[in-house]
From TrEMBL:
The keyword Secreted does not apply. It is a multi-pass membrane protein. The keyword Hydrolase applies. PANTHER family: RHOMBOID-RELATED PROTEIN. Residues 60-202 form the Peptidase S54 rhomboid domain. GO terms for biological process: proteolysis. This is Rhomboid family intramembrane serine protease. It holds the Pfam family Rhomboid. It comes from Peiella sedimenti. It is an enzyme of class 3 (hydrolase). Its EC number is 3.4.21.-.
Amino acid sequence: MPWIQAEPPPPPRREPMLNAPWVSTGLALALGGLFLLQLQYGDPARLDGWTLIPAAVLAGDWWRLISSILLHADWGHVVMNALGVFIFGAPVARRMGRGAGGGVGLILFFLICGVLAGVGYTLVHAGSDDRLVGASGAVFGLVGASIRLEGGDSLRRLTDRRVLGMSLAWTIANLIAGFLTPDRSIAWEAHLFGLAAGLLLIGPWLRLTPRPRLPDEAI
C-alpha cells in the first residue's frame, strides 16, 4: 500500500502590525501634507483670510469654518491632530465600513464635527478678532464618536456610565489644559463642542450611512 503524504498545514495568517483602516490613515497623512503645502506656498497675508476669526464669520465669512480646519500653527500642532485622527478615527472608520462609501462618510463626519466646533467657538467668542486654526475640533468629534462605539453593531447610550465617565474625563482634561496654558492658546471651547458633536451625531450618521455587513460577521 503506497504511503500517502499529507500536505503540511498552511502557515498561520499573520496580522499586520498596523491594521488601521486606509481612510483614517490617509486622513492623518493628508493633514501633514496640507501643512507642508502651507509652509511651502502659504503667504501669511493670504492665509489670514482662511483662519477662523469669530467676528469675520459672523459678518458672513462662513467658509472660514471649513478652511481653518485645513491649517495648523506648527509641526507639533499638526502631529498631535494627525495622531488623534489615526487613533480615534480608526474605530469610527471600521464602523462606517470599507470602500469609498465608508471613506466619504468618515471624511464628511470629520468635517461636520470640525465646522460645529468652529460654530460653537464663534458663538462663545462673538466679536473677537483672534485667529483660530487646526483640526482639533474635528478630531474631538472622532473622540466623541469612538466613546459611543461598542462591539458589533450597537452603540452605547448617551446615559451609559462609560460614555458619561469618559466624556467627563475629556472635559476636565480640556479645562485643565485650557486654563493652565500660560498664553491660553488652546481652544478648549472648540474641543468640547467637537466632542459633543461626535457624541450626538454618530448615531444618526451611522443610520444615514449604513455599514455593509462583511462576510465573516455574524448575522
